[in-house]
Design goal:
Layout (H helix, E strand, L loop, with lengths): L13 H14 L8 H7 L6 E5 L8 H9 L2 E5 L2 E9 L8 H4 L3 E3 L6 H5 L10 E4 L6 H9 L5 E5 L6 H11 L4 E4 L6 H4 L4 E7 L20 H21 E11 L8 H10 L4 E3 L15 E2 L2 E2 L8 E3 L1 H4 L4 E8 L25 E2 L2 H15 L3 H8 L1 E6 L2 E6 H7 L6 E2 L1 E7 L2 E4 L1 H6 L8 E3 L2 H8 L16 E5 L5 E8 L2 E4 L3
Parallel strand pairs: 5-6, 5-8, 6-7, 8-9, 21-22
Antiparallel strand pairs: 1-3, 1-4, 2-3, 7-18, 9-14, 10-14, 11-12, 13-14, 15-16, 16-17, 17-19, 19-20, 22-23, 23-24
Helix pairs in contact: 9-10
Length: 498
């Protein structure tokens, strides 16, 4: 096995092959002997592309139309109802207008596991959610989708270089009730103890998954580096557990199969907080078993870790993955609130946002109703959001963030509704895309040639019917997919995507 190139896993380069060989020799003894033939066979098969539908913009009924339109042989992922695996395709999922407009998120199916482990009822209402290592944001969108964007998600990442990707993903997904922060995840537990209802820690790891992906390439890793990763993972998980309120749930996950970064990390926090954290058995969330390890390399782990999820690649046709659902059963400190460390502070008045005036909101509301048939007051009430201004821009901001974390500096928050320009109000395409299903009127469907020009930022000339000059219109493709807004100017439609 170690001398063979894995087909379809893109590890022909020597470093990746060396990394695979080392991982295979290391992990093979941990696999139940009766499963080894199936695992070996799976590693010679290409990993199938998968995506997860966005319930904020579409629903499962759209899948049949897309499958017919694009020639997909698609099927649900066994442990994730909104996840779809594509066995063959005439047009790749990455090449569709639905993908461009955020109707689904392309993601390895293993990465859909963390979002599915939480109790469904805990995602109802308005949960307060922390994603401690969020970028690039795929798993964050899963939490937003499962809560239907009615809670508040704080998406944190400590790396400045990873923040732009996180912003782009959440904007395309259509999230309003989120804030992006850039702080060491190890600090959140001291800043906000016993605060969050749900926490996700998809920890930085060695990526030893036995399947090399472009997003998670396998590479050689030393014992020293793995030990350093495990120390950081433990510190992050302890911080996350401190930030979790009693009765709350946390998912700890990695894209490595290393027990030192998986079961051993969870075992460590169980020992650090005895009787106050327990592993929730995930067996009832899976169609067939994928249990965690209770021992490895002569080390024993807490027996409850059998209830974790260890996705060897053959079990669900995924890359290797680990996930564990934990529940905090009691306070860690003597006092319920404990002693808080001082979090970074910035007065909200210095954030550049300010409440919009009633007259301004009334004018904006009337304009949105006139152009799109949208009821801004109803949309904001349903989302628990507030309208504020930043310069000439109107924004929809999560009210719960302002109430609870308003002084915590953020890199991005909420979603822009529209901008005031000399030519009048210009809607934000991502905001209209999010609420497109609520719109009516001012729609123009265009042909493929115009679609291509439009997506490249060009103005287009097309039949506009009786719409007056200056009207804002929504451009659709022939399948009714919203592509962006423009303004009628003479015989052309001015593209706001420029």
């Amino acid at each position: 096995m170690s001398k063979k190139k894995q087909k379809g896993t893109n590890i022909s380069e020597t470093p990746r092959q060396d990394a695979f060989d080392a991982a295979w020799e290391k992990y093979r003894p941990l696999v139940p002997p009766e499963e080894l033939p199936a695992l070996e066979e799976s590693l010679h098969k290409p990993l199938l592309q998968a995506f997860r539908l966005n319930p904020l913009k579409t629903d499962a009924s759209a899948l049949d139309d897309m499958s017919s339109r694009y020639g997909w042989a698609a099927e649900p992922i066994a442990f994730c109802p909104e996840g779809i695996r594509v066995r063959s395709a005439e047009i790749l999922p990455s090449m569709t207008n639905e993908h461009r407009m955020g109707h689904y998120y392309i993601q390895d199916s293993a990465s859909m596991m963390p979002g599915m482990l939480y109790d469904a009822e805990r995602l109802n209402g308005s949960p307060l959610i922390l994603d401690l290592a969020a970028s690039p944001g795929g798993k964050t969108t899963h939490l937003i989708g499962r809560s239907m964007d009615r809670g508040l998600v704080i998406a944190n990442d400590s790396s400045p270089s990873r923040i732009p990707a996180l912003k782009t993903v959440l904007k395309n997904w259509g999230s309003v009730n989120h804030a992006i922060t850039q702080f060491p995840g190890e600090s959140y537990g001291d800043w906000f103890p016993n605060t969050f209802d749900l926490i996700l820690l998809d920890a930085p790891c060695s990526m030893q998954s036995l399947v090399s992906l472009d997003s998670h390439p396998m590479r050689p890793i030393t014992e020293r580096e793995e030990k350093a990763l495990a120390q950081r993972q433990t510190a992050l998980l302890e911080s996350a557990l401190k930030a979790l309120r009693p009765g709350g749930q946390i998912v700890y996950s990695t894209c490595t199969l290393s027990p030192d970064e998986d079961e051993a990390v969870v075992d460590s926090v169980l020992r650090t907080f005895p009787g106050k954290v327990h592993v929730c058995d995930a067996a009832d969330r899976l169609p067939w078993p994928a249990p965690g390890l209770t021992s490895a390399y002569g080390n024993d782990f807490d027996s409850s870790l059998k209830g974790a999820v260890r996705l060897w690649p053959h079990r669900y046709e995924t890359a290797g993955f680990f996930a564990c659902l934990l529940e905090k059963t009691d306070y860690f400190e003597d006092e319920p609130d404990g002693k808080r460390a001082e979090a970074p502070y910035r007065a909200w008045e210095k954030s550049s946002f300010a409440p919009a005036k009633e007259a301004e909101i009334a004018d904006l509301t009337a304009w949105l109703d006139d152009q799109f048939g949208l009821d801004l007051a109803e949309i904001c009430a349903d989302a628990g959001s507030l309208v504020q201004k930043r310069g000439s821009e109107f924004w929809m901001l999560p009210g719960r963030y302002l109430e609870t974390f308003g002084s915590l500096p953020s890199k991005s928050i909420g979603m822009r509704i529209a901008s005031q320009t000399p030519g009048g109000l210009v809607p934000d395409n991502d905001w209209v895309s999010r609420f497109f299903s609520h719109t009516s009127g001012n729609r123009i469907a265009v042909g493929d040639e115009d679609v291509n020009d439009w997506l490249h930022g060009a103005d287009i000339r097309t039949e506009i019917g009786n719409l007056p000059k200056g009207a804002i219109v929504m451009i659709l493709d022939q399948n009714g997919i919203f592509l962006g807004c423009g303004r009628i100017s003479g015989e052309r439609i001015r593209n706001f995507n420029k």
